[in-house]
What we know:
Blueprint lengths: L4 E5 L5 E4 L4 E5 L11 E2 L15 E6 L2 E6 L6 E3 L2 E2 L6 E2 L5 E4 L2 E6 L6
Parallel strand pairs: 3-4
Antiparallel strand pairs: 1-2, 1-11, 3-5, 5-6, 6-9, 7-8, 7-10, 10-11
Amino acid sequence: MAGSIAVRIQGSPDRLQLAGKVEYLLGRGDPKNEAAPDLDLGPYNGQQMGVSRRHATLLYNEFGLGIVDLGSTNGTLVNGRLLTAGKLQILKDGDEVKLGKLALNVYFGPENQ
């Protein structure tokens, strides 16, 4: 069921690819605390934008691709709607996700497979 996911950070030309897993940790890397997310948003001003070290998880399940906020300090929004920590929100291809103030779009349609 897991396929390729493309993440585009708004304001950046980068298109980041995630592939090969069913679940991906989004956050900021922190060598002091051995935090190593699958998608490290530190290089995109993650700390200044309010991204937690362990902010959210993207995961595939029987309903598709979803996101779960991991109790982050500054919250996770999908298309402007604040998520409840620990509750799965199924995504649609191209949805806007905000981790704190850092906005990105998540693509996982057939063109990303």
